[in-house]
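ok so i was messing around last nite and threw this chain in just to see what happens. nothing serious, just curious
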Amino acid sequence: MTANPQPSVAHGTFTVERRYDASPARVFAAHADPVAFRRWFAEGEEWTIHHWEHDFRVGGRLSGSFRFGDEGNDTWFNEAEYLDIVENSRIVFSYVMGREHPVGRIRNSASLATTEIVPDGAGTRLIYTEQGAFLENAGDIRLREQGCTELFEALARELEAHA
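result:
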């Protein structure tokens, strides 16, 4: 038997913290409200949404597929399940991400994520922790952290625009 010289999975954990000048109830509502959540989580310049479903409750699911830029780019999917929700305080979910391919879906990661919403003076401190199994490339860990940081910046814009 020959040993595989390359690991088939890279494990990574990262945390993104962000402070918002909004109450915990408003930050939580931006996750719970399907219209607000779609605005900051999925919509954006040059993104096309092909499919979107969001059922925010324990046992509920998030399902979406997206394409960035012109039609030559890959279509990505995100499939999540909400595992624990404590109003105005905590959201725990698991999810897989990957690409649509002519032979079927190719998963590039599977993650467990926790969003903590903590009062911070007149605002809120959001602490997002993700523990992932990255199935294609260990460099995806850094890219996912960068992507999550950008998402929480989009949340800041959502909170400012809909104060």
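not much to say yet. The first helix runs from residue 24 to 32.
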